[in-house]
Design goal:
The protein is built from three helices and no strands. By secondary structure, it is mainly alpha-helical. The longest helix has 28 residues. The radius of gyration is 28 Å and the shape is rod-shaped. It is a multi-pass membrane protein. It holds the Pfam family DPM3. Stabilizer subunit of the dolichol-phosphate mannose (DPM) synthase complex; tethers catalytic subunit to the ER.
């Protein structure tokens, strides 16, 4: 079962429950306005959750100093190869 089918099954089940509550097929003691606006509330809460996860992952992102040094070496090798083939750079790269 793919993730799409799983998510569609969950949303279908939640939608069926919500629809049964909105149309009074099931007796509840909940506030009807809260039931009516619950999808909007859930979408807003999901947005807050998604933003929190993205900010947390950005804050805990690790620097890869070894990969950065390797990339700089590859850039320098490419510049040397292009210069040997006759390419002229307008700006000189910063020396380290």
């Amino acid at each position: 079962m793919t993730k799409l089918v799983e998510w569609l099954a969950v949303f279908g089940a939640l939608g069926a429950i919500w629809l049964s509550l909105v149309t009074n097929k099931v007796e509840t003691n909940f506030n009807p306005t809260l039931i009516l606006y619950s999808p909007v509330i859930f979408v807003a809460l999901f947005g807050v959750y998604a933003a929190t996860v993205v900010l947390y992952r950005v804050c805990t992102f690790n620097n890869c100093d070894k990969a950065a040094a390797q990339l700089q070496e590859e850039i320098q090798a490419a510049r040397t190869d292009l210069a040997a083939r006759g390419f002229q750079f307008k700006h000189q790269p910063p020396t380290q």
